Amino acid sequence: MPEGHSVHRIARQFDRNIVGREVSASSPQGRFAEGAAILSGRTATEVRAVGKQMFLEFDDELWLRVHLGMYGAWDFAGEIVVDPTIASANGRMGQTNQRGTVLDSAGENSLTSIGAPRRARVRVRMSEQTTGLPEQEPEWPPPIVGQVRLRLLTDSTCADLRGPTACELQTPDEMLATVAKLGPDPLVDDVAEGEERFTAAVRRKPTPIGQLLMDQSVVSGIGNVYRAELLFRARQNPHTPGRDVREEVVRDLWRDWVRLLSIGVETGQMMTMDDLDPAAYRAAMASRDDRHWVYHRAGLPCRVCGTEIVVEEMATRKLYWCPSCQA
User: Fold this and answer.
1) Active site includes 128?
2) I want to staple 77 with a disulfide (CB 3.0 to 4.6 A). Which of 54, 71, 109, 142 is the partner?
């Protein structure tokens, strides 16, 4: 499932390529035909990302709410201006001497801007790698590929939505009510106020901290990868009830989330390892297998103590952790 950094990056793509433009909307799949008919001919006026949800406003105060869920994806095609937040990862995660282009296994340039407007097709889904596939005079508008729930088309840019958990129109009051149910997002809410809300919510609940970090009413945007990595970085047992986690640890979890989310938005990578030498850093940016402390490393030795990383199921999701470092 896309995590918070990905949805913020997608929202920024919309801000640069769709907001301020009139759209032609359609539902090739047919499941959002009525909503698309209402949107068609309107101008997109604002976009917001909160946690794992994106809200796109159109004139007459009409909002489109999209939650990608496990299988949702946005495809962009046409004249794409890629957001400059990926322009540089230098200085992040303690790295100050990285130069040059680093492409990961999905083809994303993690350190330098993909560039100015170009004819391209861009796919954003799941791990939210953004890959430009140059074409020569592509067909316009692009042909429909797969089950497209919603197509938003401007005079030069196409955005296709596939497989979302939620795709619905909302009034301003309905949008605000949806957001009100979500926990704090460090890129939306005041960071200090968010810390207080998060700390208070965790400290009053008997639910294991490993579940609370995935509860979007407690904190927005954290998914399976960030959950595992945040808990390991804090050396926190995921089974400890929230109310029993020391307050300073809860606050440290929030502050670490603020930091990792910012890095994720800027680089497009869920980079969670610190103090890597230049070669290790480049390897980590190029491969997910070298980017995390415990996530997806079941059966492998802990990078710190050598104990075998375990995987178990917590609230129907896989939880990776070190039973020694996080005892």
Assistant:
1) no
2) 142
